[in-house]
From TrEMBL:
Keyword check for Ribosomal protein: no
Family affiliation: Belongs to the MscS (TC 1.A.23) family.
PANTHER family (UniProt xref): SMALL-CONDUCTANCE MECHANOSENSITIVE CHANNEL
Span of domain Mechanosensitive ion channel MscS: 96-158
Record organism: Sulfitobacter profundi
Span of domain Mechanosensitive ion channel MscS C-terminal: 171-254
Function description: Mechanosensitive channel that participates in the regulation of osmotic pressure changes within the cell, opening in response to stretch forces in the membrane lipid bilayer, without the need for other proteins. Contributes to normal resistance to hypoosmotic shock. Forms an ion channel of 1.0 nanosiemens conductance with a slight preference for anions.
Cell compartment(s), UniProt: Cell inner membrane; Cell membrane
Protein name: Small-conductance mechanosensitive channel
């Protein structure tokens, strides 16, 4: 065994040189691919994917050449056959890893979800900070980072909140039954139109009398604003404040529940009250 090992030393040395050369070629290939793709309009995540695949192909070819040098009896066909049999066993052992890997490749080619988009999936909501091959990083609005397997984003519905520039907002506003509804609609409409965060170009403001409430006629007020979560909250705050101020200035009541207490029997007076009554 020692003689066989010594006899293989020249082949091992050559194979080592091949691996070193493979490392250099892989580094050069990554650099060339990065420079070439940086001049295109491909998303950064896709550029990283192509760079990784190029490096993997170079390393696979280099390892195959090194194996043939060390073991002359091997041929590329036998190596590929061995890889095919081994890949089945590896596939069963690392099923979840490969599932996330393939899902990541498909997600990277999606145009509907990009880094920087605000998404929601399976109760996880936040900004897409990074899309890797096996996982995606979601930065929640409270600052927490959630690392999500790509298979989850691939197999479940994903709500892309920022797919479009604007999203619709809706609030319910109630007025008293004795208020003229046309007047109330006009006051609410002018209040919403005065808000800077309300989009008034291609998206009109809609105000509909929705229902007869317990103590009010309820209006459904809808408008469009920026799709980012902060823009949504800021616009909602501005609209609610403006509508409340406009209705108050117009003398139109926004009703709230009144509570009347009725006692079945008269309440007894306290001793001090009895004394005052006698006095």
């Amino acid at each position: 065994m020692a003689r066989d090992t010594i006899a293989l030393l020249p082949q091992i040395a050559v194979a080592t040189l091949v691996l070193i050369l493979t490392w250099a070629i892989a580094a050069l290939g990554r650099s060339l691919i990065t420079r070439t793709l940086s001049r295109t309009k491909l998303r950064p995540s896709l550029q990283d994917l192509f760079t990784l695949l190029t490096s993997i192909l170079i390393w696979v070819f280099g390892i195959m050449v090194a194996a043939v040098i060390v073991f002359p009896g091997l041929t590329p066909a036998s190596i590929l056959a061995g890889l095919g049999i081994g890949s089945v066993a590896i596939g069963f052992a690392f099923k979840d890893v490969f599932e996330n890997f393939l899902a990541g490749i498909i997600i990277l080619f999606r145009r509907e979800m990009r880094m920087g988009d605000h998404i929601e999936c399976e109760g996880i909501e936040g900004k897409v900070a990074h899309i890797a091959i096996r996982e995606s990083h979601i930065r929640q609005t409270d600052g927490q980072l959630v690392i999500v397997p790509n298979a989850m984003l691939f197999k479940n519905p994903v709500y892309v909140r920022t797919d479009q520039k604007h999203r619709r907002q809706t609030v319910i506003c109630g007025v008293a039954y004795d208020v003229d509804l046309n007047e109330a609609r006009t006051v609410i409409s002018k209040a919403v139109e005065s808000c800077e965060t309300v989009e008034q170009g291609d998206h009109p403001i809609h105000i509909f009398a929705q229902e007869f409430g317990d103590s009010s006629i309820n209006f459904e007020v809808t408008w469009w604003t920026g799709s980012a979560p902060l823009e949504q909250r800021r616009s909602r705050d501005e609209v609610v404040t403006a509508v409340k101020r406009a209705l108050d200035d117009a003398g139109l009541e926004i009703p709230f529940p009144y509570r009347t207490l009725t006692f079945k029997e008269p309440l007894p007076l306290s001793r001090s009250e009895d004394d005052e009554a006698e006095g």
